Amino acid sequence: MEMRGKETLLFNLNQDVIQMFNFAIESIYHAMEAFLSHDKMTAQTIIQNDVRINTLENKIEQAGLNCLALYQPEAKDLRYVVGILKMITDIERVGDLAVNISQATIDINHYEDEIVKENIQSLYRQIIEMVQLALDAFLAKDIVKAKQVIKVDDLIDEMTNTIFKETLIKICGQNQHIKHYIQNLLVSRHLERIGDHTTNIAEHTIFIYGGVNVKHFHVKDDYS
Amino acid sequence: MRKLKNLIMTGLLALATLICLLPLLLLLYYVIKMGISSINLDFFLNNPKPMGEAGGGMLNSIIGTIIVLAMASLIGIPIGLVTGIYLAENKGTKLAEWVRLATEVLVGIPSIVIGILVYGWLVKSMKTFSAFSGSIALTIIMIPILARSTEEVLLMVPHTLKEAAYALGASRWKTQWMIVMKTAMGGIVSAILSSIGRIAGETAPLLFTAFGNQFFSTKLFRPISTLPIQIFTYARSPNIVQNRMAWAGSLLLVGMVLVLNMSAKWIGYVVLKRRNK
Amino acid sequence: MNSEETTIRAKEFSAWYGDFKVLKNISLSIPTNYVTAVIGPSGCGKTTFVRCINRLHELTPGAKVTGELRLNEKNIYQTDPMQIRRTIGMVFQRPNPFPTMTIAGNVMAGYTLNGIRLKTSEYKEIVEDSLRKAALWDEVKDKLNKYGTELSGGQQQRLCIARAIATKPTVILFDEPCSALDPIATGKIEELIRELRSHYTIIIVTHNMQQAGRVADFTAFFMMGELIEFDRTETVFTNPAKSLTEDYITGRFG
Question: Domain for residue B15, yes or no?
Answer without folding.
Answer: no
